[in-house]
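Same chain as my last thread, 107 residues:
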Amino acid sequence: MSDTVPAWSIEPIWVVEATYAPDAAETRPAVRPEHLDRIARLRAEGTILEAGGYLDLSTALILVRAPSEAEAIALFRDDVYMRAGVWVELRAKPYGRVALDGEPSGA
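reply #2:
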């Protein structure tokens, strides 16, 4: 057995999945700048670790730090994509993120 401390830890985060509407390609461009500004702000604050969407506009994935599933979803319930109907459904799943020593962990 080794007495060395691992150079990693597991950070519990949430993967939020947002389903795009069938007409997202048409509705998204008008509200995309507002959406991306908000994503960039939440990422700069450390709430969002990563965000993006499949290029086929089926689903977006957002890795977030939140205390619960409800709070992870609440981060996006009032997003302009939901208000404008670009996204039609939100779900969240818990995820164990491997965090290396020296990385911000949100803890």
